[in-house]
């Protein structure tokens, strides 16, 4: 059966943290492989990422994976964070560059410029302790000079020691399958897990898609625009559309599905049930 994983972002308040752990327990009923928790570049969520990871592990008894974004960190800081995760028995990590908050300009004297450097550093420091995931972009990373240079970067991250990849979300499965063909043509056979974004809110999705370079196809944009603030119809359309897309991915044998839950259990669970991936007992 296709494996599943879920992504959370760290909560701001204690009330939010309690609510998130209820969502985590609901998601845990689908027997995911792991939960991941995002990280703010420059260490802006360092303690909250750690707190959310541990609370999720306590609430569900399931493995957790921290996101680690290297931009703005020194090697010494990353070393300390890695040692902490090792001592907590965490053995899976996703190594990223991260994005600086807008308006921060360029950083001077950076010790890490790209995710490939972080991946090399994690391997040098911790040998084979961590299963290292990396980010991949079937629709091309927005700052990449070209598709070719982005594929070169994918290869660099694999050569640096990444074991598998999770993609930016997409709504066009052809982009994902073409990307897989290109990766395989480079002789690379690591799992490339599609990142799945359930659709629940038009404005947020449109803003986010523009920022991260994920294409929201015109027909989906138009349909969501027509629903405007009718959130029930947006959810229903989104569930049906994303379920259909995932059906295609599963039928083509994807290694797993990674859900960007936005800290809500219901939209991801609905899709998993539609796919027949929800365990019977
Ligand atoms: P990189 O792989 O370093 O690539 C960044 C850009 O630089 C690309 O355009 C690449 O082509 C180019 N590049 C790389 N090396 C070179 C080189 N040597 N020469 C020229 N160009 C080069 N962000 C967060 O802040 N926190 C998170 O928790 C987080 N989680 C994520 C999880 C997933 C699954 C994904 C897909 C993204 C996530 N992001 C997160 C977003 C990510 O940090 C941004 O997309 C960021 O802009 C790029 O990160 P990266 O690790 O892909 O960077």
Give me a quick take on this structure.
This protein has 281 residues and is α/β, with parallel strands linked by helices. It has helices spanning 14-28, 46-60, 75-87, 115-126, 147-160, 173-185, 202-212, 218-227, 231-251, 265-274; strands at 3-8, 34-37, 64-69, 92-96, 131-136, 164-167, 192-193, 195-196, 256-260. Helix 1 packs parallel to helix 10 (265-274) and helix 9 packs across helix 10 (265-274).
Q: What would you note in describing this structure?
A:
This protein has helices at 14-28, 46-60, 75-87, 115-126, 147-160, 173-185, 202-212, 218-227, 231-251, 265-274, and strands at 3-8, 34-37, 64-69, 92-96, 131-136, 164-167, 192-193, 195-196, 256-260. The chain is of the alpha/beta class and 281 residues long. The protein has one domain (3-274): TIM Barrel, CATH 3.20.20. The protein has a nine-stranded parallel beta sheet with strand order 7-6-5-4-3-2-1-9-8. Helix 1 crosses helix 2 (46-60) and helix 1 runs parallel beside helix 10 (265-274). The protein binds flavin-adenine dinucleotide. Flavin-adenine dinucleotide (FAD) binds at residues 38-39, 41, 67, 69, 94, 96-99, 114-116, 135, 141, 143-144, 149-150, 153, 157, 166, 168, 195.
């Amino acid at each position: 059966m296709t494996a599943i994983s879920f992504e959370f972002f760290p909560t701001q308040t204690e009330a939010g943290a309690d609510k998130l752990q209820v969502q985590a327990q609901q998601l845990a009923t689908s027997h995911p492989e792991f939960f991941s928790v995002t990280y703010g570049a420059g260490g802006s969520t360092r303690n909250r990422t750690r707190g959310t990871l541990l609370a999720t592990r306590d609430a569900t008894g399931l493995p957790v994976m921290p996101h680690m974004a290297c931009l703005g960190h020194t090697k010494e800081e990353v070393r300390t964070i890695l040692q902490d995760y090792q001592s907590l028995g965490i053995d899976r990590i996703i190594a990223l560059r991260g994005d600086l908050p807008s308006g921060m300009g360029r950083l001077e004297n950076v010790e890490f410029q790209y995710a490939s450097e972080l991946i090399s550093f994690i391997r040098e420091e911790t040998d084979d302790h961590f299963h290292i995931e990396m980010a991949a972009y079937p629709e091309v990373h927005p700052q990449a000079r070209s598709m070719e240079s982005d594929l070169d970067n994918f290869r660099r991250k694999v050569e640096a020691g990444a074991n598998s990849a999770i993609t930016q979300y997409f709504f066009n499965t052809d982009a994902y399958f073409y990307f897989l063909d290109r990766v395989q043509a480079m002789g690379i056979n690591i799992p490339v897990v599609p990142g799945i974004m359930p659709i629940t809110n038009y404005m947020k999705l449109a803003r986010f898609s523009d920022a991260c370079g994920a294409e929201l196809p015109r027909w989906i944009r138009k349909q969501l625009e027509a629903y405007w603030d009718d959130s029930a119809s947006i959810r229903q359309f989104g569930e049906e559309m994303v379920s259909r897309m995932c059906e295609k991915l599963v039928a083509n044998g994807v290694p797993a599905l990674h859900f960007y839950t936005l800290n809500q259990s219901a939209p991801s669970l609905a899709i998993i049930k539609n796919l027949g991936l929800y365990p019977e007992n």
